Amino acid sequence: MVLPALALVLVFSYFPMYGVLIAFQDYSVFKGMSASPWVGFKHFEDFFRSPELFVVMRNTLVISMLKLCVGFPAPIVLALALNEVKNMLFKRVVQTISYLPYFLSWVIVANFTISMLSTDNGSFNIFLQWLGLIDEPVSWLSQENYFWAIIVSANVWKDIGFSSIVYLAAIAGIDPALYESAAIDGASRFRMMYLITLPCIMPVVIIFLILAIGNLLNAGFEDLLLFGVNPALRDVSDVLDTFVYRMGINLGRFSFATAVGLFKAVVSVALLVGANRLARRTGNSLW
Amino acid sequence: MKLAFEDRVLVAVVYFFLILLAFVTFYPFWNSAVISFNEGTDTSMGGITFWPREFTLENYRVVAGDVRIIKGFGVSIARTVVGTFCTIAMTSLLAYGMSRRELIGRGYYMTFCVITMYFGGGLIPTYLLIRALGLMDSFWVFIIPSMVSVWSMIIFRTFFKEIPAGLEDAARIDGCGYWGTFLRVVLPLSGPVIATLSLFTAVAHWNDWFVASIYINNENLLPVQAILKRTLDSNIVSEIDTAAQSHVLRTQKSFTTKSLTMATMMVITIPIVLVYPFLQRYFVKGVLVGSLKE
Hints:
Chain A is mostly helical. Chain A is 72% helix and 0% strand. Chain B has helices at residues 5-36, 40-43, 58-65, 67-99, 106-118, 123-132, 150-162, 165-173, 178-189, 191-207, 210-215, 224-244, 252-290.
């Protein structure tokens, strides 16, 4: 009963792993893997010498760090805030709304973003003008300065609600007696949040933080591919994954792109293993 | 209960934050819906926020009459239905096998599967494989490569293990084989998991544009998200071009594109908006089970 499924895993997951070997070849589609010549680390050297290396690595690290710094705490704040709400109807409505964007495709989210930020009808510009902060609509999407802020905001918007589920579950598991005794001692709600809720969910927070470190080279793919369509923004939008996509799929430099992808995978695995070792010290680990 | 001053401030801040968040999350939907109901050239005058200025159903009429979009919807629906069915069937079968103690070497199979959650060949080798298999420009490229989901398998397996062994033994005594037990006892008991995982699988199929964009060249096989992606590209480019141009130079065409894009987006989004609140309860549980990997 398990054999057909295992066969599929073998073909679609393991065969590409074997296919990674073309990173060490001058792969030609016409010759195939068996006939293409082996060239050792040539493509890796090319990548390390390429002028794009600096820009791509900088963008990858900056974007994923920004996502980590803003996108990681945001759902924790949301969970803490939801926990303070005693009105169940209000709580459920807010939760339902906040989960919704998670189920939309990046194409839709990107379209929303463009619509909100556009110069001719964008609500964001209308709102800022109404507040008197700007006189003329600003073309947010055409300028490099705003790109990172936009990509990070779109990610937070999409994921904040859904990511908060785990933290809410952790909060639900806290022993109510802790709050009762704190209330008797006259603690304010804020102190309870700070001294009981937060420390109690810390183990979960740490686990997720460590996992996020393993993901440091994953700055995002679909979102950057969609938002970074315009070559004018490439200096700020090109990350490792989009670079691999462009080199491989668009330009057909299969071996070079595979080499870059493999480099990324190796560093990511090293980060993941390192992160897991850290996780073990906290008593929680992936494996 | 009377609250201390400090507590009242906290509650006020919390409510303000949550209302703001709900507004910021909901507003883009609302605004897009409003634009989709507004007359196209009027929309180009700008300033549409909470209510349509010139209400019309024309945009939807045009979308409903666009052959490309209709075809796109057909492809999206077909792949969502077939893809979800195949993935759930294949994955639950694998999970059932893996949940049986008597399966020889199941620890090894488990490792074999879980490794693929962390390591993969990456984009290019996968692309070359799909090409070599002749799946380019084929409807099956949507279905076959994603037929086994290890993440779903783990959730299924956890659920199957909870089913009392006595039930399966009873079925066995009544003459059911593994298939009979699976189809007649295990699956009927698994409603909530099947619903949740089907939702996630279906949403993934419905939302995907990337598979189509790299493996499909045939216009007739493009799902609706991939078609929408094309208008997105032209919108991004026009947004950046118009920044350089004066307001006068903008063409009428791009404005009506906007209304039509919004109408298309609404039609794509609404099935999800309608389905997921009913399944919320289940998927919250599912996510929690899924986050515990042994």
